[in-house]
Design brief:
This protein is of the alpha/beta class and 421 residues long. The chain folds into 2 domains: 279 residues, Aspartate Aminotransferase, domain 2 (3-Layer(aba) Sandwich), CATH 3.40.640; 134 residues, Aspartate Aminotransferase, domain 1. The protein is 36% helix and 13% strand. The chain contains 16 helices and 12 strands. The strands form 2 sheets. The chain has a 7-stranded mixed β-sheet, with helices on both faces. The chain has a 5-stranded mixed β-sheet with strand order 8-9-12-11-10. β5, α7 and β6 form a beta-alpha-beta unit. The longest helix has 20 residues.
Amino acid sequence: MQQQTKALHAGYDKDSQGTMAVPIYMTTAYEFRDAEHAANLFALKELGNIYTRLNNPTTDVFEKRFAQLEGGEAAIATASGMSATFYAIANSAEAGDNIVCARQLYGGSLTLVAHTLKRFGIEARFFDVQNPDSIEALVDNKTKVIFFESLTNPSIDVADISAITAIANKHGILTVVDNTVATPIICRPFEHAADITVHSASKYTTGQGLAIGGILVERKSLLEKLKGNPRYAHFNEPDASYHGLVYVDVPLPPFTLRTRLSLLRDIGAVVSPFNSWLFIQGLEHLTLRMKEHSANAQALAEFLEAHPKVTQVNYPGLKSNANYENAQKYFHKGMCSGLLSFEVASLEAATKIVNATELYSLVVNIGDSKSIITHPASTTHQQLSEAELIACGVPSGLIRISAGLESVEDLIADIKQALEA
């Protein structure tokens, strides 16, 4: 099936009532047939619903549908995009290990890997996403993850996915790709040998800023990389917390299985069934929206590139952009998503422009149907020093726009008056 068909039908066999819309199963728990049935579910001898912290019928449809769109084997829905990222790393690494991360990350992800995970004993080492050749010098026998974004937020760089995954596979290391900004409609990292993808479903998946949630997706045949791999002994040895289960010996996708049975069980950052239902609604028209978001962002980028007060425009759909070649290689049908950024002369000039817009909303979110403007240096990346801001591609004069679905003529007119106010 093509993407738009999957977005409408994948993962849902109509229930006993024949409902066209996926039902919302707002329940914490499920009744077992008898004691043997309960024991079999907990022992994985049978598959079924146990408790909504572990699984839920509405969330199951969302997970299956998203996994098919991404081209993966299985998925785990989570309470937020940040929890999906945390689970992906925590399922791979432990105290004493290290992860190799792109410097160009969303501000929350940077804080997670550089500060929060440090307190868990996991070291983060950083590379420039525009120079993947620098990764290999950072790798040692305790490296468990290479983490990067397919389309970075807010520096708007396009990762050379194949170059990064080639290095990771050479050393038997898992790659985790945040594919939030591109979405499965525009970029499919599994086609370029990535292992795990994570998304903030709060962004383009819902499309209207309605709900917080995230999702983690495992590629097909990841078992072959994990089985017997000395870097990931916890997948190959008995898990004392789950009856001595060896994850690579179970005929289920091992990465998502361990995420569910260990991390969802113990940490509990699980998505609400109602939010899963909202995300299912968003997926139904994600293909159509990404075309419009991309078209509006392209027109805005072209206008900004020609404006004398703009010193730099970051959008991979521009032929002048350093990421144009990678966008042509990794992105589908010329779409480059709705996120762009541009630079003006100073912090003062940037804040003046942000304050002067009328149609754009000053909001720290992206992927909404309504257009959003943000000054990252004073909001999402405020915790970084000036040197750290420069290193991750967020100078103080940078303005980020999430192009919505309004008339592009109106979007251009508003940013024009703000630049010239």
